[in-house]
């Protein structure tokens, strides 16, 4: 198991060099990513049935495929995952349009999402809301999981096409003090460039009006 974990946890290409004092010859030993080491070691401790082959086989990230996606199953959380992956950090209104049905159904899914080990719960008193954020080390791997497969990449593209306009409407409807960096950033990231530029013009208009700029 140890060797399987080490094989799946190499240090990123271009990792920062180790500087020793006093200087010494650079070693040739392999270096590892501490985040990945902790991720797989924790998985192995919590699941005694986990086998080394599960970690090493295939090209799909096994932690994402098994520990996250398979564990979610065919649930509302599974349907929300492409949007959650694209957003990174979001509050209820930013995600609400991705799940059809009653508010009670959405609240149940949002609560379950907030309890996932890879989600950070972040109250924001300044905006009177609560954000959820995907673990910043894990989000690139979620994006790679979707982008690395043709069928999954369609789910990501469809989520982008829904989210961009929905977030733009939120930003247009809210007063400037309630827009927040996360909403503005997500909307402009997920919109096509011409639409993002138009949204920024509208936000800039709100800034000029509130600040009484000429």
Written description of the protein model:
With 214 residues, the protein is mainly alpha-helical. It has one domain. Helix content is 59%, strand content 7%. It is built from eleven helices and three strands, in the order αααααβααββαααα. The protein has helices spanning 2-7, 34-46, 52-56, 62-72, 76-87, 92-96, 103-114, 139-147, 150-173, 180-190, 193-211; strands at residues 89-90, 119-124, 129-134. Strand 2 (119-124) and strand 3 form a beta hairpin. The mean pLDDT is 85.
Please summarize what this structure is.
The protein is mainly alpha-helical and 214 residues long.
Number of domains: 1
Percent helix range = 55-70%
Q: Give the neighbour order of strands across the main sheet.
A: 1-3-2
Radius of gyration equals: 21 Å
Task: Return the structural class.
Answer: mainly alpha
- The count of strands amounts to 3
Average pLDDT across residues?
85
- Succession of helices and strands: HHHHHEHHEEHHHH
Which word captures the global form? globular
Q: Strand fraction band?
A: 5-15%
**Main pleated-sheet profile:** 3 strands, antiparallel
Q: Would you identify the regions where 5 or more consecutive residues have pLDDT less than 50?
A: none
First-last Cα distance: 66 Å
Tally of contiguous helical segments: 11
List key phrases describing it.
single chain; 214 residues; mainly alpha; 3-stranded antiparallel β-sheet; 11 helices; 59% helix; 7% strand; globular
